[in-house]
Amino acid sequence: MTSKRDQPMHQDRGDDEAQPLADGDADVWGPVNDVAEGDEETVTLRESTESAAGTGGYDLPPDDADDADPAASKPERMAKNALRMVLAAILIGGVAAGGVLFATGGFDDLGEVGSSVIGDNAVEQNDFTRSEAGDCLTWTADAPGDPVTVDCTSAHRFEVSGVIDTASFPTAEFASTAPWPGVERFAEIRDENCSVMASRYLGGGLDPQGRFAPGLMFPSRAEWERGVRSLRCGIEQPGAGGVQEEFKGRVRDIDQSFTWPDGACIGIDAATRKATGVVVNCAEPHAFQVTGSVDLSQRFGGRNSGKPWPSVNDQNEYLRGICPTHTNRFFGGAKKFKDTTLNVQWSVLSEVSWLTGSRRVFCYVALPNRGGFATLLGDARDDALLINGKVPTPADEGPPGRSVGEPVPLPPGYTPDDAEHPAPGGG
Q1: Residue 246 DSSP SS3
Q2: How is residue 337 annotated by DSSP?
Q3: Most buried among 83, 215, 392, 422, using CB within 10 Å?
Q4: Helix (H) or strand (E) holding 345
Q5: What is the per-residue pLDDT across 88-102, written as a single tens digit (0 to 9) for each?
């Protein structure tokens, strides 16, 4: 671990309660009270790692039930590459890694569709099959199989980064008589192509710790049987329950930082005690609650300023004067926050995030617990907050006029004596 620095949690708490961590390419946030130097305990923000074989990953249409078993046989792989299937018309993938076909010229990010459709020449075209690099697509929750092209300045769910040329694959795999490849095979195609295509399209890459991820749009079984063979790599913002969130603007022009609204509660994995990165109802178990966000460009320079990455130490020095203030304001006063017994923490930006243009970090409250987070229940601003199932108990401040803080230094030659001695009797 290249750097690790203490940061204050509260004006009445020691600096050793929690701290941000950073290494060369990790966006850093998380409780670190129990983390030894050198441990990789950063918590990077990614899409949900729910297994794709369950309801949190992708849903297969009824006639695809037989195809679910192969995916379910590899839950670990699918958990890392959680696919979200859009029924009836398109399927959408999530995280990508690597780029095999890029090296061989196997895709065309200029949007040429001709060689990417194999089979029936009379296939009905739609906005998905006509889309090219730079197009933005969206759909409604009640019609996920009917994507439409919209202006990228309006809300959308997918920005096309390029068209995969299926002619580069074995002929039999995408022939008109070929069987539907299945979710597992499409996941492999996504992982081999879409991350590199996104980097080429953006001219600088995605923030690997940001809110966006490479994805793949590909035909459902029904569309495949009608002859559709189109594949589109693109960029999406993964959301809860396998649903792509809407965003506005082209990704190359907007901040990719992973932030949430003030007051948002972020879920917790009960087994690992790590944050899931998914916003949940505060009445549900969660790892931390966001108290505010900070735009680092105001201090260290904007996306196009050309200014170098501020070190973690520099970020900490700046944020330790801001996040406690944000948090006290969020709770309506320092006393009310102190009564929660939670700690103030904040995220920092890695150098790779900075170079992709990310500039926002967030402040949050949490409590470290055995290398992870304590489990919180309830909005921390309410009296119903529970920490690991218990009502928080503020530390006893002692009677008025008595300090329970740092002891007053004694003059040289004196030692403290805590014994109680009776008062001398009268003579």
Answers
A1: coil
A2: H
A3: 215
A4: strand 343-346
A5: 223 333 333 222 233
